[in-house]
Design goal:
The protein is mainly alpha-helical. 53% of the residues lie in helices and 5% in strands. A hairpin with a 6-residue loop joins strand 1 and strand 2. It is elongated.
Amino acid sequence: MISDEMQQVVLDLLAEQRKDGIPKFSQRQVARLTGRSRGYVRRMAQRISHYKIGRPPETVRCERCKTMALADEPCGECRLRRLHKQINPVGHPPSDMELELMPAEQRRYEEVRHLREL
């Protein structure tokens, strides 16, 4: 069992920062200074970051695509779909793209493309 004093020393070393806000000691350095394992120091660092961040943001299900999204932001999946439609509205390769297909494949390609445009 690790004493409360040792836990506090590790937490203090992890929380110590330079003037520019960057941590003064890396997790590896803290582990070496205190004689604790790097895994223990990592868990203590996660505990600190959890308290700094607070509660995780609330998520809700998007009404359109049913994916999970942050409550205060638009759904990322829907934004990507809109962007994709703006770039490639019909869903097939741009007309300037050269396709070299065998005759049977070319006929099938044109059939499918025609059906998608309907």
